[in-house]
């Protein structure tokens, strides 16, 4: 079966509409109280690879529901006026998530190009999760 639009084209279209931050620039945001680095990866990825210190975990599947103040699942963090920097493993999910958040009206949102892989390559700090 041939799809009309594949994931690569979706990501490319998203990246044409959003702000992409380099891993080096994102590293400078760690500890900034006005910036929230949002980790969209699955919990198993966090347990396996660790996380960016101080990052906020939001499963990609909950994005629309946590952002929307009308949703029963809304998280007040997303109406705080802070700057949001999304990331995933490779930057694909975060590009699509950033596009969606932007389309919903979330201001000041971007993503880390290349995701956690680029972060690690740029020598960004990683925090291992305690075993359960």
Kindly describe this structure.
The chain is of the alpha/beta class and 132 residues long. The chain has one domain: Oxidized Rhodanese, domain 1 (3-Layer(aba) Sandwich). The chain is 36% helix and 14% strand. The chain has 6 helices and 5 strands. It has a 5-stranded parallel sheet. The radius of gyration is 14 Å and the shape is globular. The mean pLDDT is 96.
Task: Present the secondary structure layout.
Elements: H1 7-17, E1 19-21, H2 23-27, E2 35-39, H3 43-49, E3 56-57, H4 63-67, E4 83-87, H5 92-104, E5 109-112, H6 115-121
Parallel strand pairs: 1-5, 2-3, 2-4, 4-5
Helix pairs in contact: 1-5
The succession of helices and strands, N to C, reads HEHEHEHEHEH
Distance between the termini: 42 Å
Number of structurally distinct domains:
1
Structural class: alpha/beta
Which features does this protein show?
6 helices, 132 residues, Oxidized Rhodanese, domain 1, alpha/beta, five-stranded parallel sheet
In short:
The chain has 132 residues and is α/β, with parallel strands linked by helices.
């Amino acid at each position: 079966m041939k799809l009309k639009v594949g994931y690569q084209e979706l990501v490319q279209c998203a990246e044409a509409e959003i702000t992409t931050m380099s891993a080096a620039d994102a590293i400078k945001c760690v500890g900034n109280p006005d910036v929230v680095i949002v980790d969209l990866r699955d919990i198993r990825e966090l347990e396996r690879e660790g996380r960016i210190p101080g990052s906020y975990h939001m499963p990609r599947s909950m994005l629309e529901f946590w952002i929307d103040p009308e949703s029963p699942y809304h998280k007040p963090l997303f109406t705080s006026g802070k700057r949001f920097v999304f990331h995933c493993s490779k930057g694909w999910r975060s590009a699509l998530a950033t596009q969606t958040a932007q389309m919903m009206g979330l201001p000041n949102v971007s993503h880390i190009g290349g995701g956690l892989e680029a972060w690690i390559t740029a020598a960004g700090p990683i925090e291992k999760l305690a075993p359960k």
